[in-house]
Amino acid sequence: MFAAERQSRIIEILKEKGSVQVDELAELMQVSPMTIRRDLVKLQNDGHVERCHGGAIAREETAYADKRTSHKQEKKKLAALCKQFVAPGDTIFLDAGTTTLEIAKQIKDIENIMVVTTDIEISRYLIQSDVDLMLCGGMVQKSTGSVLGPYATQMIMDFKFDIGFFGAAIISGTGEVMTPTVEKAFLKRETVKRCEKSYLVVDESKFQKQGMIKINELKDFSAIITNYPFQDEKGEVRIISP
Question: Is Transcription regulation among this UniProt entry's keywords (predicted)?
Fold first, then answer.
């Protein structure tokens, strides 16, 4: 396997798992750990990964097209659970992501609601509905179709939401909600604070990974809506499952 092929495969693995160890990659690709370390140095210099002790973590988010086909049925089931928490007249924040797009499909016929979102695809979908719709302005992350940056954050700070539904790229083994995108961290963190009730809606593929930037923790949400067999020994997290 040529170096370019190896490095491309490493990026794919990181997008899927969030983090990976040098020894694991060396065994998988049947090369020496030193070769893998050189690959990781190249990928870090190119801005694709962040090296950490014994391995690397992803710096790029999964492209929107890939997210849309991943765990699609699970996302639909989780989105269906979310509808019960929305009442006529609510002001709702929908985080960017394919799971929240499924939530938009579930709530679009509820009367007299306003949806504020940072997701271009969600706004494109809801423009055909009777929902009052507001799209945050700012820089567009083209790979994910989401809006971020200081202008989007400032706009969010002027709102107070009845309810917010959030997604996540990565949830660590210690309950930290994380992202590969530095610019998203502050925006997401502040938006949760602007919600009377906040729900993290994530399928099982997002758990037990490692990311670069911490957003907040599972206990910061009103509840976690997930199909992951979650155990909270401290009793700090409310879990809602299909």
Answer: yes
Higher-pLDDT residue of 190 and 18 is 190
Q: Using alpha carbons only, give the angle 113, 241, 143 rounded to the nearest 5 degrees.
A: 65
- Closest by Cα among 42, 55, 44 to 4: 42
Lowest pLDDT segment from 88-97, 117-126, 222-231:
222-231
Residues of the chain with CATH 3.40.50.1360: 65-240
**Mean per-residue pLDDT over the chain, rounded:** 87
CATH of domain 65-240: 3.40.50.1360
In which residue ranges of the chain is CATH 1.10.10.10 found? 3-58
CATH architecture, range 3-58: Orthogonal Bundle (1.10)
SS3 117: strand
